[in-house]
Amino acid sequence: MGNEKMYMELAEYYDASVSWKDYRAECTLVHTLIMKHKKSAGRDLLDIACGTGNHIKYLKKHYKITGIDKNAGILKIAGDKFPGIEFVSADMTSFDLKRTFDAVICLYASIAYARSHTNLIKVISNISNHLKKGGVTIIEPFMTKDEFVEGKPFATFVDEPNLKIARMNVNRRQTDVAILDFHFLVATGAGVKHFIDKHKVGLFDRQEIQHAMENSGLSTTFIESGFQKDRGLFLGVKQ
Predict the structure, then answer these.
(1) Which of 115, 132, 185, 187 could form a disulfide with 40 if both were Cys (CB 3.0 to 4.6 A apart)?
(2) Is 168 strand, coil or helix?
(3) Which class does domain 4-144+203-238 fall in?
(4) Average pLDDT over residues 122-136
């Protein structure tokens, strides 16, 4: 995730700013795919880059969940929302929880925070190492190198009676790294605040992710129909 200070300041607005996402529908698909392909017997699930826990809200009735995120501020929000869930502050390239899971998910294009091909391999190796034999991983990719259009503007809006949020950015690129500087305007009865949430994420081809998964001992399938148009999902089963 992005800057910790920003998330602490934006805490009460963050979930509203992503209210356009249908987390319930996403989790229904995730659960269906896990149960269809999982060969291990348990229900332990690891959510990598869990954010504020919006997927956990709908998956916790099916699984015993552990969430990890690099940002301690955002984990504070998640912990307040879900006091019965274990949350760990950790880097997805190097975490070691010393146990394995029946399912590992990495959604909302969070795999792109690996940034480099070297780190991508580390993250996927970590995912494989934390899966039981027959366990399932679901990874939602970001845009590929060819799909990312530099200079393209994006905007999302929240229009509630007592809360207005505009989130805007213009795509920038440095070689195979996308520069995403999200500008938030948040209006409440107290006034208008401006936040800048800066992200640098890697642009990976599908083949890069698939090869990294297969080389880490995961039988891999790309599912064309994912949560967002043209993104798809990678599904891997630990051999």
Answers:
(1) 132
(2) strand
(3) alpha beta
(4) 99
Q: Is CATH 2.20.130.10 correct for 153-201?
A: yes
- State the alpha helices, DSSP H only, in the chain: 4-17, 23-37, 56-59, 72-81, 117-129, 206-215
> If phi over 0 gives left and psi between -120 and 50 gives alpha, with beta otherwise, what is residue 4?
alpha
pTM score over 0.90: yes
What are the strands, taking DSSP E only, across 129-217?
Answer: 131-139, 153-160, 163-170, 172-174, 177-188, 191-202
What's the Cα-to-Cα distance from 39 to each of 59, 61, 174, 193, 221, rounded to whole Å? 19, 20, 41, 49, 16
Domain ranges of the chain: 4-144+203-238, 153-201
Q: pLDDT tens-digit profile of 47-74?
A: 999 999 999 999 999 999 999 999 888 8
Q: Which of these, 121, 58, 63, 113, lies nearest to 90 by C-alpha position?
A: 113
